[in-house]
Write a structure and sequence with these properties.
The chain is mostly helical. It has helices at 30-36, 46-69, 76-85, 90-102, 108-122, 127-137, 141-151, 154-174, 179-192, 197-208; strands at residues 3-8, 15-20, 23-29. The radius of gyration is 27 Å and the shape is elongated.
Length: 212
């Protein structure tokens, strides 16, 4: 058979219909068409159809990953899990992962750095909490430890805890909470945020004075 016509689909202009000897044989994305350089007059048989199907599936995997990345940065584990959920083959997944790494769209180290910076801006927390969240997202321990060491100094963590303590106390007093319970509640709040006990003690003393 030979390709006799290639035309855009009416409802999905980004996809093309391929006709051979006047009969419809395949629907493909514009990316697949360009990648395989298909043109009217080209011969098309079983092997060519297999190549089209393989290229189309690979492009579908890449498009799925790109849509997933469009909402926020992702880790490699998140991308792999998403593509497995969509039942792409291991070979297709590995190819997409490699392509995303090469294009700079997938970088666990950069992801961890942005995650820590955003967290400290929007919802400050101690290193243990950030470490646990990054592990759950699939960043390896070595990368996490390096990024946290680079982004969070002991001094910055102490100042963050002090600022959170000041806000907590101001809010509690504005709501007329009982002061005798405030110290315990403040300590628990900072502990849940992942700050170490010596930092919690110092921040609590600064916000409320020495513990009698």
């Amino acid at each position: 058979m030979r390709i006799t016509k290639i035309e855009s689909q009416q409802k999905r202009p980004g996809r093309k219909n391929i006709y051979a000897d006047g009969k419809f044989v395949a629907g493909v994305s514009a990316e697949t068409l360009l990648k395989l350089a298909l043109r009217p007059g080209d011969e098309i048989g079983p092997e060519q159809l297999k190549a089209i199907q393989a290229a189309e599936s690979a492009q579908s995997a890449r498009n799925t990953a790109l849509r997933f990345l469009s909402t926020r940065p992702r880790t490699e584990r998140e991308i792999r899990s998403k593509l497995r959920e969509k039942e792409f083959s291991d070979e297709e997944i590995s190819s997409v992962i490699q392509d995303l790494h090469q294009s700079g769209l997938l970088d666990d180290r950069q992801f961890a750095r942005l995650f820590v910076r955003n967290a400290m801006t929007l919802r400050p927390a101690g290193a243990p909490v950030l470490r646990r969240k990054l592990l759950l997202l699939g960043v390896d321990r070595k990368t996490i430890d390096e990024i946290i060491a680079e982004e969070l100094s002991g001094e910055s963590q102490t100042e963050t805890a002090r600022e959170l303590a000041r806000r907590f106390v101001a809010k509690a007093r504005a709501a007329r909470k009982e002061d005798q319970k405030l110290r315990a509640r403040l300590s628990g709040y900072l502990a849940r945020r992942g700050f170490p006990w010596d930092t919690i003690r110092d921040a609590t003393r600064e916000a409320l004075g020495p513990d009698e």
